[in-house]
Each structure stands twice: as structure tokens, then as C-alpha cells.
Amino acid sequence: METFEDEVPEPTMGRQLGDVLAYARRQKALSLGALARAMGYRNPSRGGQQIQRWERGEKLPPEERLVLLGQVLDLAIMDLLNLRDQDAKERQRDRDRQLALLRRGEAGHRADFKLLERFYHPLMAAFHGSLERPAWTEAQIGDAAIVLAYLGAKAFSLGELLQAWSEEKMTTRCQSCGGRFRLIRLAGSPLSGRHHIDGFCIDCGQSDQRHLIKDGTLLEYSRSQTPRILDHPSQRASAAWLVDLTDYVMESRWSLSQVLAELGETPPIIGLTTPEHQLLATYDAAKAELTLKDHDAPVSFALWFGPDPVPMEEITYLEDDWGEAHSGGRPVIGQLSPPRAGSWRGQTRVFFAAETGEPWHQSRGLLYDPEGRVRGVTDGALPPPVLMWLIRWLAHGQGDP
Q: Cβ of 371: how many Cβ atoms within 10 Å?
């Protein structure tokens, strides 16, 4: 019986068993179909497809199939079982790492929700105290939206959200005190009572509102809360609709933290870290300064938010805003694995570094390079000019471990 420890290529973590099976099959000069027939598959074509998935590491074979593989390929059964157990453990560790990373990104992506609650009164006072709509009202708030399964979504800018609250829209009755519960996000099934909401009560401070107090279906309630119709997928040019922002500006240069700094408040400093928790940079919105690791002098962005800001045309990037995820040909709610087009749950922003022309992606607080690797995790929303500067910095090999 052969031993497969020698001459086997260096295995991929979590795919050791697949690498061994593929190597042993090639050594036996068996095609996928021939191996499937030898294992007793009635349909060799379908069996070959199953074996190919095992070899690629897409799935782990069940024990009874693993015994047949060992017999046909002349491999030690216990060694194969041990490899399968090792792969299963490695995959679980990898899933745990990915889940922890996604949770970090999610927390950063939704940091604006806490800022809206904390600075609600100064924001409303500044909004009503302006004779003209300030530029900062165009700031985008990640996940501030009404999202209806299969029907569409309506995202809110900061100004739209403040206006809705002023008109007692995006508001429901607080379960704790009966006061005004300001909605930031409302998502769910349009024809039933199932929904998920985020918000806070401005009277008692409650932010855990498990059941929306409303009349009628969620669809009827949502229609009464939105100033415009929902963005239905049938109205979009394609499933991944990209707009060149060098020709048409869709996104403000402002972020919520920068707005608060403009109003004289002191927002938290925003950090950019690697997936391994190493600090890459920090951004102080109050000073409009970006401090990079191993750099003495900070980068200033004061002109972007001064009386004469730098023209937005100088930024080169694209954004996919509220692209739809599909299942069975229909758009559905749910997070789509980056860096694909965005899902109904939130935004995937696609940036093109001017020097390389390669696309970077930001989704749920995670920043992906053109190869799909996570290069940074933010714990808050960075202004687009700052984020674009960081992408160019990373694209030139800076910030590498």
C-alpha cells in the first residue's frame, strides 16, 4: 500500500485531503469518471463531479465514500480519516476567524448609529438653524434605510434622515416610555409583521426596540415613512450598476464624524487596522488629519472641508450603491460576500486607484484589495477623500506587514 506523505505538493490549509486524493488519482492514471465507476457510482459523470469537489476542497467526503476512495486508490483509510478531521478543524478555525473579522467590520460600519443617538440634539439644532441646506447634509449614513424583501430599498442621507425625523416620519412609539422612537433602519418582509429595526428613543434613551409599533403591513407603514419611491431592481440598468463619479458625483465628501467636527463637537478618532489588529492609521475629524504608522507628519485634509473645498472631480472611483443580491433570479435580503456587487443589506463601494486602475472594495467596514484580500478594518466611517488617499497608499505597498 502506498504512503502519500512523500512527493505530495504542499497542501492548502483546510484542503490537505483534497490535495492527497487528487495526487493519488493522477498517480493511478485514473480519470474522474473512471474513479467514480471503480467506487460503484451508477452515474460516473455525476460521481466524477462529486469527486472533483472533494479534490478542490469544496466539500469533505463522508466516511463511507472515504473508505471506498482508500480502497481504490490504495491509501491508508485511517490516514485519510485523520486528514479529513484535520481539514474539518482547520475550516472551523478559519470560519471562526472570518466571523470575528466580519463582526469587527460590522461594528465599524454601524458606528454612525451610535453617533446619531449621542449627537441627535446638536444635529437637529444645526439642521433647523440653517437657512439653506448645508453641504454636510449630503453625508451618507451606512445602513440608514428602509429595506423591503423583493421590493427594493430607500437609503437615507443625513439630511433626508433629519428631515424625516422633523416631519415625525421614520418614527414610531417607544415600547418603554411611549415616547418618540427615531428609526434609522427598517427592514423586513413587506406583507408580514416580520421586521428588524434600529433606532433610539429621544425621550428615554431606549435603543432596544424589538417590535415595531405600527398599523397595517410593513409595506403600508414603509410607504408612509419614505419621501420617495423605493429603488426597485427592475428600474436599474443592471444587477451591478456602476456610475463613474468623475462624470457624475453621487457621494458627498462628508462623513458623519466630519459633520460633527464642523459643528464643533468632538467625534471619536477613527482607526484603520489590519485583520491581525495592527494599527495602520488613525483619522482625527476634529483636526481633519490622518496619521499613518511609521510617519512623523500627519496628512491634512482641512481644505476638503473648508470654505473652498477641493473639487470632487479630483477623486477617481466608482460606487455600486444598493446593488441587488439574487437567489433563483430574484433579489433577496442578505449580506453578499465581498467583493461582489452589494446586497440589499448595505452598500459595497468600488474604488479605482488612479495610478493602477485596479478596483478596491469597501463593504461592511472591511476594505478589500483587487485580489479580494482584506487589507483594512475601520471602526468608523471615513470621509471619502480620506478613504481614497488610504487606498492609494495601500496600493503602493504601504502598510504591508
A: 8
Q: Cβ(142)–Cβ(381) under 8 Å?
A: yes
Residue 238 is assigned to a structural domain of this protein: no
Residue 203 located in a structural domain: yes
Nearest to 383 by CA among 295, 276, 260, 241: 260
pLDDT in tens, 140-199: 887 888 877 766 677 788 999 999 999 999 998 888 888 999 999 888 777 766 788 899
Distance CA 250, CA 217 (A): 32
Close Cβ partners of 87 (under 8 Å, ≥ 6 residues apart): 14, 15, 16, 17, 18, 57, 60
- Residue of 156, 148, 266 whose CA lies nearest to 217: 148
Tens digit of pLDDT for each residue in 239-263?
A: 333 333 333 334 578 899 999 999 9
Question: Grid coordinates 427592475 are at which residue?
Answer: 234
Query: Can you give the residue range of the structural domain that contains 33?
Result: 16-106
Report the C-alpha gap between 160 and 57 in whole angstroms: 48
Q: Are 71 and 148 contained in the same domain?
A: no
Question: Domain for residue 158, yes or no?
Answer: yes
> Are 291 and 281 within 8 A, CB to CB?
yes
Nearest to 150 by CA among 339, 328, 363: 328
Residues 223 and 120 in one domain: yes
pTM of the full predicted structure? 0.73
Reference 321, options 256, 384, 389; nearest CA is: 384
Evaluate whether 347 touches 142 at the Cβ level (below 8 Å). Answer: yes
Q: How many domains does the chain have?
A: 3
